Amino acid sequence: MIVICCVTYDNENNGRHEYTVKTYESLMQTVDFDTTRIIFIDNNSFDKTKSFLKKIKSKNIDIIYNEANVGTAEGINKGIFTCSKEDYVIKLDNDVTFGRLGWADEMKRIMELDNSIGVLGLKRKDLLDSPTCKEYPTKLEFLKHELGDEWWVIELRDDIIGTCTMISPLLREKIGYLWQPGVYSFDDTILSAKSLIAGFRNAFYPCVIIEHLDKGGTAFTDWKSKYAGMYISQITGIIDDFQFGRRDIYYNPFL
Prior knowledge:
Number of strands: 11
Shape: globular
Structural class: alpha/beta
Order of helices and strands: EHEHEHEEHEEEEHHEEHH
Oligomer: single chain
Distance between the termini: 24 Å
Radius of gyration: 18 Å
Helix content: 25-40%
CATH architecture: Alpha-Beta Complex
Number of helices: 8
C-alpha cells in the first residue's frame, strides 16, 4: 500500500488554506484509491481548515489532529506511526498539484524495480538540479528494462527536496522515523543524508509534472526561512554525527 502523509498548518495570516484545498482536489483527480490511502495531519490549523478536513474524512482519507504546531517531521511521523512496515510512505507538502494520473503508483513501481533507492522525489520546475548544472549536478539513469516493459528513468541526486518524496519501506526499517532540529529545519536534507549513510541511493523522478503553489514572499515563508537559517551552521555537524556514529541514524519518537 502507498500512504500519502500531508501536514497542514493553516491560519488567517499565512494564506495556506486555499493551498490545502487545491492539494486535496488534485489528489482526488490523480490518486488510485485501490492502491493508496491519504492521511492529513493537522498542526492546529484555524477552524476553516479543521472544518474542511472534517468534511473530507472518508474510508480512504484519515485525519490526525494535533493540539499544536509540532512541525513537519513530527507531524509526518504521526502518520507513519499508523503505517505497516511494508507501506511506501509519501511525505507531501500541502501546496502541490499533480499533472498526471497514477503518479504515486509510478513512484512505487520505480522503487520495486530498484530497491537501492531510499528516497524518491518528484521534481519541481523551480529547481536548478540537472545533468548540465555544475552547482547542482544530477545523473540520469535508466532502470532495468526487459523487452515489452515501459522505460523508467530516474535522476540521481544526493539531496532530494521534500515537496513530494517517497520513502521506501527498506529505508524506514533502517532509520525509523523522520528527524529534524527544530520545527522547520532541514528534515529533507537529514532524511537524504541518512538514506546515503544507510547504503541507499536518492533520486528524482522527473517525468511527473507538479506545481508548487506557494511561491514564497509572504511573512510566513520568510519566517520559515529565517527559522531554518538558525540551524544551517549546525547541519554539516549533525550529518557528520550520523555518519560517524555519534548519533544513531535510527529514530523512533514513540518508544
